[in-house]
């Protein structure tokens, strides 16, 4: 079985220090959280950035500062900026980190109810626009799918030339408004992608570790982090992103799955050379 790629989603745009004091806002805090995750075994850092007061931003310069600072401590980590940003941002605002030509970036494959009156909007034209930008910039998209229909959309847009294969999916499961985090739905998604595709699973909240185990057993890859889940165990806040990654490493070792280095992750995902 391929080695396990661990992605750490260290910050997100929705969670705050009120939810968990380890959620990073400043550049120093982002470096701390990224390097703890990297030292624990994460090869990919999925990155959102904030202003120092915690407000989400897609500002290109802020991304550059944070990414440069992370690279000092995590020289070979794959840094994967979000193009999802936060609910309500415009397409061009969200796309700013692609101007930095990262190796990877997220590409969200559909619109989703995001709780209350919030809608995370990704029209077909938005997905095409983002997909074309990533092809132009030679950025490998992590196809974020929050439901089965979003896999089908990605496959249609692949046929139309907006997404290249081999595709890499991120099954984000258990979001209010998206697919559930059950094993049944994991199996459904897992069998809905092309045979040459890879996937990672990001279980939200209490689904994080059970779905990590499912992916470890199945030969998939795993995303954990404070963006998705604030707790290391029921009712116990995680001290850091590093602690969440350490738990996945322990589970993988128990189940006989080795952890990929960043170089091995690049090989598995077919990323462009640095
Ligand atoms: N913050 C969500 C609205 C992504 O990173 O591409 C979008 C999100 C997905 O987190
Ligand atoms: Zn994200």
Can you count the helices?
9
Shape: globular
Bound molecules: (5S)-5-amino-3-OXO-hexanoic acid, zinc ion
Q: Residue share in helices? A: 25-40%
End-to-end Cα distance: 26 Å
What's the gyration radius in Å? Answer: 17 Å
Q: Total strand count, please?
A: 14
CATH fourth-tier homologous superfamily: Aldolase class I
The second-level CATH architecture is: Alpha-Beta Barrel
Number of folding domains? 1
Order of helices and strands: EHEEEHEHEEEHEHEHEHEEEHH
Average pLDDT, all residues: 97
Beta-strand percentage range:
15-25%
CATH topology: TIM Barrel
CATH class: Alpha Beta
Which stretches are low in confidence, meaning pLDDT under 50 for 5 or more residues running? none
Primary descriptors:
9 helices; binds zinc ion; eight-stranded parallel beta sheet; TIM Barrel; binds (5S)-5-amino-3-OXO-hexanoic acid; globular; 274 residues; alpha/beta; 36% helix; single chain; two-stranded antiparallel sheet; 14 strands
Topology:
Elements (H helix, E strand, L loop, with lengths): L5 E4 L17 H14 L3 E4 L1 E2 L5 E2 L2 H14 L4 E4 L9 H4 L9 E5 L3 E2 L5 E2 L3 H13 L3 E6 L2 H12 L8 E6 L9 H8 L7 E6 L4 H11 L2 E4 L6 E3 L2 E2 L3 H14 L7 H8 L5
Parallel strand pairs: 1-2, 1-12, 2-5, 6-9, 9-10, 10-11, 11-12
Antiparallel strand pairs: 3-4, 7-8, 13-14
């Amino acid at each position: 079985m391929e080695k396990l790629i661990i992605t750490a989603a260290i910050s997100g745009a929705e969670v705050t220090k009120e939810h968990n004091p380890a959620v990073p806002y400043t550049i120093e805090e982002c470096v701390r959280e990224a390097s703890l995750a990297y030292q624990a075994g994460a090869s990919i850092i999925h990155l959102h950035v904030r202003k120092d007061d915690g407000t989400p931003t897609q500002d290109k310069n802020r991304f550059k500062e944070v990414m440069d600072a992370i690279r000092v401590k995590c020289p070979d980590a794959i840094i994967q900026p979000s193009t999802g940003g936060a609910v309500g941002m415009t397409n061009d605002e969200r796309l700013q980190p692609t101007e930095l030509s990262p190796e990877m970036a997220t590409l969200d494959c559909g619109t989703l109810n995001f709780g209350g009156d919030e809608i995370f909007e990704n029209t077909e034209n938005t997905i095409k626009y983002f997909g074309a930008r990533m092809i132009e910039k030679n950025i490998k998209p992590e196809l974020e799918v929050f439901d089965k229909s979003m896999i089908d959309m990605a496959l249609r847009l692949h046929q139309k030339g907006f997404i290249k294969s081999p595709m890499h999916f991120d099954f984000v499961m258990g979001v209010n408004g998206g697919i559930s985090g059950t094993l049944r739905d994991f199996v459904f998604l897992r069998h809905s992608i092309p045979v040459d595709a890879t996937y990672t699973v990001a279980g939200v909240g209490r689904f994080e570790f059970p779905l990590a185990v499912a992916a470890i057993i199945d030969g998939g890859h795993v995303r954990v982090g404070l963006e998705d889940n604030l707790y290391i165990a029921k009712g116990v806040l995680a001290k850091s992103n590093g602690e969440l990654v350490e738990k996945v490493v322990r589970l993988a070792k128990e189940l006989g799955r080795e952890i990929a280095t960043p170089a091995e992750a690049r090989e598995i995902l077919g990323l462009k050379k640095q």
